Amino acid sequence: MLTDALLILAPLFLGFALALKNRRLMTGIHYTVEALVYFILALLGLGLGQMEGLSSQLGAMASQMSVLVIVLFVANMAGLWLFHRWQPMVPEHRNQSTGNTGYVRLFMAALKPLLAVFVGLILGYFLLPDLPQAEQLATWSLMLLLFLIGLQLRNAGLSLRKLLMNTQGLGIAFMLVLSSLLGGVLLIPVLGLPWNEVLALASGFGWYSLSGIVIGEALGPAWGGVAFLNDVLREIIALAIIPLMIGSRPAMAIGYGGATSMDFTLPVIRSSGGLSCVPVAIASGFLLSFLSPVLMGVLLSLS
């Protein structure tokens, strides 16, 4: 378990070390990443479906997930509000031309991960026999996914120097990390897990395909499902609050999306907050995408 938790860091940094210039290859990597995400989530659902006593644990999982989402939401919003007060950011006027169709499409796309897990859960519970090799397959798939994501981050046409110099984006990212860890500290007596495991649960930052598998391998499929749902709900909640908050409190709107602010929630950030919010969101999401696997790997290695 400890080795797996630490090994996930290697492919991410290996991918980031490689520079590619072939656009066709990068397009292929993009579609491969998308397919791997849903494959890994289906494996997570499969593990849940084949878990002993699943029906008796659903109530506990729902309550654990709910308290995790609520405490982290409050902690993140409080921390990001303080950052907003300290470093106020004034976005452009909202773009009112964005129709409901595009927004609804994004919102419905956020439900696809849930569908992938549900399909895996149904297959595991009703149809497929126990597959002891599924966990190892999920580990190797995740390592390949992280390698390809490292390639994407390196070859996204972004200047690492400019990202690291974006003080607003870096400040938002660090405040999200700090407030999430503080929220995790509050959850230690509630969740009944060792402190390092609770903090690992709080370190997904919206990256559900990573947190679900990593936590699931370390703590079991039930906690993997809790971690996955927590981070999927972060993405869905972010889609709901970004248009409402970005005009007056952009740091809170951008920051709560976590790692998704550089990809999935970026179109809503752009259309609701204007171009000035884009580099801030990318810098914040980029840093959180690196910190999430690092923090989870290090924290779980302390078990």
UniProtKB/TrEMBL annotation:
Pfam families: Lys_export
UniProt keyword annotation of Membrane present: yes
Keyword Repressor set for record: no
Transmembrane segments: 6-22, 29-49, 61-83, 103-128, 140-158, 170-193, 205-229, 236-258, 278-302
Keywords associated with the record: Membrane, Transmembrane, Transmembrane helix
Domain of life: Bacteria
Protein name: LysO family transporter
